[in-house]
Specification:
Blueprint: E1 4-9, H1 21-24, H2 29-43, E2 46-51, H3 55-70, E3 74-80, H4 89-98, E4 102-106, E5 128-131, H5 136-145
The protein binds ligand CA2.
Length: 148
């Protein structure tokens, strides 16, 4: 049975490649989706790739991934929750409540940036946390899921 990888992206990541290239690079979210599709194909995973600017949509998608997890059909969730990383107890509760294997991902090295980006509500419930590899981090995270 083919396992599925959920790659979920939070607020403003739809703007990737249009501003702040010194922080986030110049690739677009469509480019990131392609990177993820290539990585998933390498491992025989099915990819679900989504972005939302709404916290509740991200919660609903984690629940959706949780149902696959319960059925033994989920490889894991790669979540770039963007600013919600630093604010969202709701996303933490969704990850804890579903038990999905989570990679928390950031394009930039959040620890080299403003102090408000240093704390993550999600890290406590994540199996792995990665940051600072640019958008290539998404492919590395999927490679990591294949080792679990
Ligand atoms: O480094 C990351 O991936 C972040 O999750 C990105 C978030 C930021 O709030 C986190 O602290 C770190 C911001 C995403 C917004 O992305 C944009 C990209 C281009 C132009 C404008 C926003």
């Amino acid at each position: 049975m083919t396992k599925t990888v959920y790659v979920l992206n939070g607020p403003n990541l739809n703007l990737l490649g249009t501003r702040e290239p010194q922080v986030y690079g110049s690739q677009t979210l469509a480019d990131v989706e392609q990177l993820c599709a290539t990585a998933c194909a390498r491992h025989g995973f099915t990819l679900v790739f989504r972005q939302s600017n709404h916290e509740g949509a991200l919660v609903d998608w984690i629940h959706e991934a949780g149902r696959l997890h319960a059925a033994g059909q989920l490889a894991g969730v790669v979540l770039n929750a963007a600013a919600y990383t630093h604010t969202s107890v709701a996303l933490l509760d969704a990850v804890k409540g579903t038990g999905v294997p989570l990679v928390e991902l950031h394009i930039s090295n959040v620890h080299a940036r403003e102090s408000f980006r240093h704390h993550s509500y999600l890290a406590a419930a994540a199996r792995a946390v990665m940051c600072g590899f640019g958008v290539q981090g998404y492919a590395l995270a999927i490679d990591g899921l294949a080792q679990w």
